[in-house]
Write a structure and sequence with these properties.
The complex is a heterodimer of chains A (278) and B (284).
Chain A: H1 5-38, H2 44-48, E1 51-52, E2 57-58, H3 61-92, H4 97-111, H5 114-128, H6 135-159, H7 163-171, H8 176-205, H9 208-211, H10 231-240, H11 245-277
Antiparallel strand pairs in A: 1-2
Helix pairs in contact in A: 1-11, 3-6, 3-8, 3-10, 4-6, 5-6, 6-8, 7-8, 8-11, 10-11
Chain B: H1 5-42, H2 44-49, E1 53-54, E2 59-60, H3 63-94, H4 97-112, H5 115-133, H6 141-151, H7 153-165, H8 169-177, H9 182-193, H10 195-211, H11 214-219, H12 237-244, H13 250-283
Antiparallel strand pairs in B: 1-2
Helix pairs in contact in B: 1-13, 3-6, 3-7, 3-10, 4-7, 5-6, 7-10, 8-9, 10-13, 12-13
Classes of the chains: A mainly alpha (278), B mainly alpha (284).
Chain lengths: 278, 284
């Protein structure tokens, strides 16, 4: 029997729209589920108090500090490296074998799972360079992990700067570096910041790469060579070892809010760029 | 800057451009130098195909973990790939662009949710459902597959949409002008033209599923056995590394790094295939 094409069409639309609906429902369910159970726990007190008895009681203050300081360190290291790599790729060279190797390396780095970054950070920063489980080891590992994201987003942002801007700058007698510094980077800035925000989001949610490099000490770190625990690691330990479900939900809610806020800022920036260009 | 001069700037930038590739080399070097000697010492076939993983007795066979990783990933692809491609088709072909521009970033938020949160949802919501309605311990291969299937959705959807939108509008118009319905156009013209990009999106999703660690540790149960059914508790390669790394020493630690080597090689192969597929799209 042959089904009429128009009937087939209707079936296909139903199926495809159903799939889209399912996906959106899953997303909304996850966010609502965590926030409904966790949000009542998240008070100013919860965020600013020290945890007691392994996190069973009290707040999450040291892990909040860890969650701010690790991504900060990672991005301080990765942003200049990534941005200048993309400046080199887009402004200082044509497509050569060398640039193709760099691009391939960047792609490979982007696909490596976080547990491998964790293993590498442990053997290289923690043991070989003798940094121990510390903010330094964790930050450096995360920096390597987000480097490809920074390179890609900055390159896109730099390529989107109109060619005429460069030509005008050169015609005024500016050198390549002056053009990069005064024309290209200021115009590509929103795009670069978007990449940085997305990277911060990824660092905040990361667990596997952090737990083996920054450790999981619940004490407030005094130096860059002290161990620190992030909210994601804290949440993992609370949930997995069944320490406190209530505090686990609270930590998860704080984590989700942080990640969503950062991603929304990134999208807002991206839309502003698109709007300005259009 | 005058001190360094234009040539100097050029050289410095070139040096910085090496950072990503040197990081990759460093990672490869350290993982392999820590894991490869063990593989040679223990024997590659024993390591890959023996089913006994008893570190206390110095028995390190990772076959159950390889099987578990493959099965969990296979399950995730069965669920996630068709769903993801269907969403991508709907958003790019049936929905006005303005609506797509709102829904696509919303779905990409799925990628921003930390993997530990997915794991937690799996434990609190999915595992009890499986335990009550299908039997078994709940924390199982099936639970792992479902959670990973959801986690790969943003990867599959976002890259598929990009490659579907890259199909020239004239292709669609030609097909519609011949009297084809939208659906006929999609499955006879659009999908074929966007094929390599869609395949790349699925392979990248595959890589993400194989490499995922924390969510799988939380939902898959972690017992070392070759899965007999989807309801069995299993331990993947990634879970094996993360579970034992914190206390492993000596030979045991080397065995975990060797597990990492196998994982690393698998991922690099997958990503190379995906990047070739994406480049093919770019050439066209």
């Amino acid at each position: 029997m042959r089904i009429h094409p128009r009937l087939f069409q209707r079936g296909a639309v139903a199926l495809l729209s159903g799939a889209t609906l399912i996906t959106l429902v899953i997303l909304i369910f996850i966010i609502v589920f965590i926030l409904r159970k966790g949000l009542p726990v998240v008070t100013l007190d919860f965020l600013t108090r020290d945890p007691e008895s392994m996190g069973r009681e009290g707040g999450i203050f040291p892990t909040l500090i860890g969650t701010i300081i690790l991504p900060l360190l990672a991005l301080i290291i990765a942003t200049p490296l990534g941005v200048f790599t993309s400046v080199y790729l887009s402004e200082y060279t044509r497509e050569t074998k060398f640039t193709r190797i760099i691009r391939f390396g960047t792609d490979c780095l982007a696909g490596i799972p976080s547990i491998i970054f964790g293993l590498f950070g442990y053997i290289f920063f923690v043991l070989t360079l003798e940094m121990g489980w510390s903010i330094m080891s964790g930050g450096l590992t995360l920096a390597v992990m987000v480097l490809p994201t920074i390179i890609r987003t900055s390159e896109e942002a730099i390529r989107a700067v109109p060619k005429t801007y460069r030509e005008v700058s050169f015609s005024l007698g500016a050198s390549s570096w002056q053009t990069v510094k005064n024309v290209i980077l200021p115009n590509a800035l929103p795009g670069i910041v978007t990449g940085v925000m997305l990277s911060i989001g990824r660092c905040i949610g990361e667990t596997a790469a952090v737990i083996f490099t920054a450790g999981s000490s619940l004490r407030l770190p005094a130096t860059a060579f002290d161990s620190v625990r992030t909210m994601a690691v804290h949440f993992y330990i609370l949930a997995r070892e069944g320490i406190s479900q209530e505090n686990a939900y609270g930590t998860a809610a704080a984590l989700i809010i942080a990640v969503l806020a950062i991603n929304l800022i990134a999208y807002w920036l991206m839309n502003r760029i698109i709007a300005r260009r259009g | 800057m005058k001190l360094i001069g234009e040539k100097g700037v050029h050289r410095i930038l070139m040096g910085i451009a090496f950072s990503a590739i040197s990081a990759l080399l460093l990672i490869t070097l350290f993982i392999i130098s820590e894991g490869l000697p063990f593989i040679f010492e223990y024997g590659l076939t024993d390591f890959l195909f023996s089913s006994e993983w008893i570190p206390a007795e110095k028995k390190f066979g990772i076959f159950p973990m390889i099987a578990a990783s493959l099965w969990v990933t296979f399950g995730a692809m069965i669920l996630g790939a068709p769903l993801g491609v269907a969403v991508a088709l709907f958003l790019s072909e049936y929905v006005p662009r303005s609506v797509m521009r709102i829904i696509k970033p919303t779905i990409e938020l799925l990628a921003a949710i930390p993997s530990v949160v997915y794991g937690f949802i799996g434990v609190m919501v999915l595992a009890p459902i499986i335990r009550n309605y299908l039997g078994g311990p709940g924390l199982s291969l099936l639970a792992g597959s479902v959670i990973l299937g959801i986690m790969i959705l943003p990867t599959v959807i976002s890259i598929s949409i990009d490659s579907i939108l890259a199909v020239p509008q004239s292709f669609r118009e030609g097909s519609l002008a011949l009297g084809a319905t939208t659906w006929q156009t999609i499955h006879m013209v659009t999908i074929k033209a966007a094929k390599s990009g869609i395949i790349a999106s699925i392979i990248l999703g595959l890589g993400r599923a194989i490499g995922e660690t924390m969510a799988v540790i939380m939902v898959a149960g972690n017992s070392v056995n070759i899965p007999g059914s989807a309801l069995d508790s299993v331990r993947t390669l990634t879970a094996n590394i993360a579970l034992e790394m914190s206390y492993a020493t000596g030979l045991h630690r080397q065995a975990l790094f060797a597990t990492g080597v196998i994982l690393f090689i698998g991922i690099i192969i997958l990503n190379s295939i995906a990047s070739v597929a994406l480049r093919k799209r770019a050439v066209r």
